[in-house]
Amino acid sequence: MSEHTKGFRRTWIDHTTDVPANIDDVAALLHDLDGWPKWTPGLTEVRRSKRNPPRPGGKFTMMIKPASFHPPLPVPCMLLKLEPNYIEWGGGLAGSVVRHSFELTQVGPDLTRVRQLEYATNAIALLTLIAEPGIYKHDLRWQNALGAYFTKS
């Protein structure tokens, strides 16, 4: 993670899985922010003001539908790091942050280890305690969908 904030921290997902694909293919899929809704369950849209290639500092909003009966919720984000095998984004307020990342490691010619990590600090970490089970399920579905995308291809 790119930023360490002092104080209380809760990690609600730290999940690693092996994806049956070349690291470059997995990285290309994750670097295509606009394409995330095509394969990510519960993510209905990614809104960006500019359609140029994503770069650190760029802002976007994810529209996340937490349940079938619930309307999509806007989650404002900023892209923090975009490296060949690492992507990190998040948001925050009043001394608190939320960070989400995917870290890729090639473990074979067509096998990529993907570590997904998401955490929050301080006030946001406390406020999200109620929503944590839903956030965890969404993130785990995202991780599973990533593997399924390449299994179906």
Helical residues, percent: 25-40%
Radius of gyration: 15 Å
Q: H/E order of the elements?
A: EHHEEEEEEHH
Number of strands: 7
Which stretches of 5+ consecutive residues score pLDDT under 50? none
- What is the global morphology? globular
Indicate the multimeric state.
Answer: single chain
What would you say this structure looks like, in words?
There is one protein chain. This protein is α+β, with helices and mostly antiparallel strands and 153 residues long. The chain is 26% helix and 42% strand. It contains 4 helices and 7 strands; from the N terminus they run βααββββββαα. The chain has helices at 23-31, 36-39, 122-127, 132-152; strands at residues 9-19, 43-47, 59-64, 73-83, 86-93, 96-108, 111-121. β4 and β5 (86-93) form a beta hairpin. The longest helix is centred in the last third of the chain and has 21 residues, at 132-152.
